Amino acid sequence: MIDKNTVKDFVVSNLKETHFLIDITVSNSNQIQVYIDSMEGLPIAECVSYTRLIEEQFDRDVEDYELSVSSGGLDLPFIVSKQFDKYLGKEVEVVTAEGVKSNGVLLSHNNDNFVLEVERKELVEGKKRKVLVKKGVEFNKDAVKSVKPFFSFKKKKK
Predict the structure, then answer these.
(1) CATH superfamily of 4-70
(2) d(CA 158, CA 75)
(3) Where are the domains of the chain?
(4) Contact between 106 and 95 (Cβ < 8 Å)
(5) Contacts of 129 (CB under 8 A, 6+ apart)
(6) What is the signed CA dihedral for 25, 31, 32, 33, rounded to 10 degrees?
(7) Residue 123: its pLDDT value, please?
(8) Which class is domain 81-149?
(9) In DSSP terms, which residues pair with 34 in a beta bridge?
(10) pTM value > 0.90
(11) Positions in the chain whose pLDDT score sits under 50
(12) Common-topology check for domains 4-70 and 81-149
């Protein structure tokens, strides 16, 4: 079986300056998945380039493996801090450890916490009905199941 740390060390040492490693997994059956991204996204040509580079380094005749190199995409939860950096000011979906979903704009983050601007209907003094209010809500990174980009095909009401 190919050693995950050997693959990781090789990939990290060969990353372009603007790219960052999200994760590497190696299964018992030698299926290697490498997730790389950049602040501008990762074109498929870059994924192909990294695939060829890795294939040149790890000889399939010595040890057979299956390799997949891709960007983080919209369905992969955030794993590294740079993913939070990339989505500052953009809408993300948070699933808490209890399974509660929240969508909002990522306002800030540090090693332990992050803040989302969420919209909620609340009763405001002087109003008879609840109105939509934007609020900053802080989440502890250890208390959430996942954070990932949020994309909706619905048009927002103005």
Answers:
(1) K homology (KH) domain (3.30.300.20)
(2) 28
(3) 4-70, 81-149
(4) no
(5) 123
(6) -70
(7) 83
(8) mainly beta
(9) 24, 69
(10) no
(11) none
(12) no
